[in-house]
Design goal:
With 392 residues, the protein is mainly beta. The protein is built from 6 helices and 23 strands. The chain has 2 domains: 187 residues, Oxidoreductase, molybdopterin-binding domain (Sulfite Oxidase, Chain A, domain 2); 123 residues, Sandwich (Immunoglobulin-like), CATH 2.60.40. Bound molecules: ligand MTE and cobalt (II) ion (CO).
């Protein structure tokens, strides 16, 4: 500190020291700093024919910790965002029940509610990567996921209010959007941990996420988390709707499709460094970080390698560890300025270890799109730039 640093000594470069700032209420609903304006959801224009039945991606490389801010939760709609009026919102329970019911939003608020943190991952997350490395950025390869604290009523309590008949074995969840998205869910799951949720991270659900009410189906593929939830029908068999037959099933090498793949297997990705987040500081102390999750439990351990799998290191976990929630890991190392091959490998609480993409292809062939939880590789060059690659 021999030469003065103008960023400290030259007040003319620091207008915020010269003038009073905005008073309270300049922004009644707060927004991030204008310097963070690049931190946004992004889409991949060529992926879908139009924006109404489309998807955008969570900027995972700009986030830390485990909670996804509401405005950055990726969106996946089959018929655009339904703008429901909460005053005329109704949830109907019908089918194999003793007393069919209709609840208003106020009725739902009179049930005991719970707060739980869960990830939602679209079954199509990483789907473009099945046949080889394709998209440059973890936002695009892994950004069809968000991790949110939901406030909601256990679906069990609502079903008990209607009285489920003894021959019931399934429920059908139906959305009020133009796509009227519908999925069959086994009754056991509905009675176990599903929530009829109306708050995300403390505030009302965002319209994009199903305002005023969405179904939360912990650990299971995002498609089942019906948004703008308007009806639950109780039945004795699955309905085999479009989203559980022609879509969201895995076509195997022999041409047969696997029926119902609900739980999302353990997965992880290094978010920094990554293609959209190169190493800018040169050799020396470097922080590698990423996220891991499992639809079957928690993540007690993540391994990372910086040399393409020759040596593995156990990453340091930091932050809350909940079942079916995102976990944050770190690995601090001294970068020698040479090329790196970065990978992470999640272990979940059942003992399952995240497979390589080749291991998945051996079992499933190359027809699949959905349920790709293979290990991701980033190649980092001497300049610190990262690229999506596959190594064998
Ligand atoms: N629910 C309705 N009613 N309509 C939809 O289009 N999309 C599904 C699911 N629920 C959808 C829906 C899919 S495929 C996913 S991955 C998740 O919602 C996405 O939830 P998000 O938009 O909150 O990220
Ligand atoms: Co989806």
């Amino acid at each position: 500190a021999q030469t003065p640093d103008p960023a400290i000594t030259d007040l003319s470069q620091q207008p915020w020291t010269q003038y009073l700032g905005d008073g309270v209420d300049a922004r009644p609903y707060g927004m991030p700093s204008p310097y963070e304006s690049h931190v946004i959801r992004r889409d991949v224009p060529w992926l879908t024919a139009d924006a109404v039945s489309s998807v955008n991606f969570t900027p995972l490389h700009e986030l830390d910790g485990i909670i996804t801010p509401n405005g950055l939760c990726f969106e996946r709609h089959h018929g655009g965002v339904a703008e429901l009026d909460p005053g005329s919102y109704r949830l109907m329970i019908n089918g194999l029940v003793d007393t069919p019911k209709v609840f208003t939003l106020q009725d739902l608020m009179r049930f005991p509610r719970e707060n739980r943190i869960y990830f939602l991952e679209c079954a199509a997350n990483s789907g473009m990567e099945w046949r080889g490395a394709q998209l440059n950025g973890c936002q695009f390869t892994h950004g069809m996921i968000h991790n949110v604290m939901y406030t909601g009523v256990p679906l069990r309590l609502i079903l008990e209010e209607a009285g489920v008949k003894t021959d019931a074995a399934w429920v059908l969840a139906e959305g009020a959007d133009a796509a009227a998205m519908t999925r069959s869910i086994p009754l056991d799951k509905a009675l176990d941990d599903c929530l009829v949720a109306f708050k995300m991270n403390g505030e009302a659900l965002r319209p994009e996420q199903g305002y005023p009410v969405r179904l939360v189906v912990p650990g299971w593929e995002g498609n089942m988390w019906v948004k703008w939830l308007r009806r639950i029908e109780v039945g004795d068999k699955p309905w085999y709707h479009r989203e559980e037959t022609s879509k969201y099933t895995d076509l195997l090498a022999n041409g047969k499709a696997r029926e119902f793949t609900w739980a999302m297997d353990a997965k992880s990705v290094i978010t920094n460094p990554s293609p959209q987040a190169p190493i800018l500081h040169g050799p020396g102390p470097t922080v590698l970080t990423g996220v891991a999750w499992s639809g079957r439990g928690s993540i007690p351990r993540v391994d990372v390698t910086i040399d393409g799998g020759i040596t593995w290191h156990q990453a340091r976990m930091s932050g809350p560890s909940h079942d079916k929630s995102m976990h944050r890991f770190y690995y601090e190392f001294d970068w020698d300025g040479g090329p790196l091959l970065l990978q992470s490998r999640a272990h979940d609480s059942t003992g399952y270890v995240q497979p390589t993409k080749d291991m998945l292809r051996e079992v499933r062939g190359e027809n699949s799109i959905y349920h790709n939880n293979g290990i991701q590789t980033w190649a980092v060059n001497e300049k610190g730039e990262a690229e999506n690659v596959e190594i064998t």
